[in-house]
Amino acid sequence: MLWGLRQVEPQAAHGLAVDLLQRQIHSGLLLPAERLPAERQLSDRFGISRVTLREALRVLETNQYITVRRGAQGGAFVTDEERLSQLARRRMTRAPATTMRVVEFLTVNQLAASRLAAVRRGTADLKRMRQAMDMMTAAENGPQRKQSEALFFLALGDATQNPLLSRAIEDGLAELFLPFEKTGSEQTVSTALKSFEHLFQALSSEDVGSSEAAMTDLHAQLWDTVRRLTRNAA
């Protein structure tokens, strides 16, 4: 018996490239004003022609995700921090309930990941998470903190040794497109760092209960942030 079939929506190759690059920007893996790799490198990585890649870059530029500069020092650059925050606020204003659903999705999947990773993580997984935490500690601004947190959660997903769960976390991070906060207090940043450290130590010692508790703390902080940003974006 067939169930739940939906009409297939064809997507051009350049649309797939647009989606992949947007996901990197939304999740924070690409920083504001960061220069993208050269056209040849990007087209080879995506397995598409340079003509198709240029069409993807044109769409991203039209949608204000990137800027394209000409000349010897030119290239494609992620748009600046303020513009990205404007795009994120606009998205939240249009569909605030969607943002809440994304946080729910991440909460469920990252809590499950914290339990599984505590018993399945390997040395390489812990090394990746420690490197991400070192980046958090050294971060000088919101975009750098967001990037390091995304890298930590991606490493956590891989540590579960469950590709479906890892993919779910990656998808959730890509959908959670939040504006950067310029006024994050030192106390807020310090609290988050302590929670990440507690989570890392629990994972290192294979303590499932403490891993889940630390992740619960992190998600309580995320919910507070999202509610505040949603009010400000309204």
Describe this structure in words.
- Keywords: DNA-binding, Transcription, Transcription regulation.
- GO terms for molecular function: DNA binding; DNA-binding transcription factor activity.
- Residues 11-81 form the HTH gntR-type domain.
- With 234 residues, this protein is mainly alpha-helical.
- The protein has helices at 13-27, 39-46, 50-62, 81-94, 96-120, 123-138, 142-159, 163-175, 186-204, 208-233, and strands at 66-69, 75-78.
- A hairpin with a 5-residue loop joins strand 1 and strand 2 (75-78).
- The chain is globular, with a radius of gyration of 19 Å.
- It starts with 12 loop residues before the first helix and ends with a helix.
Q: What would the principal axes of the Cα set say about the shape?
A: globular
CATH first level of the largest domain: which class?
A: Mainly Alpha
Biggest sheet layout: 2 strands, antiparallel
Which stretches of 5+ consecutive residues score pLDDT under 50?
none
Structural class, by secondary structure, is mainly alpha
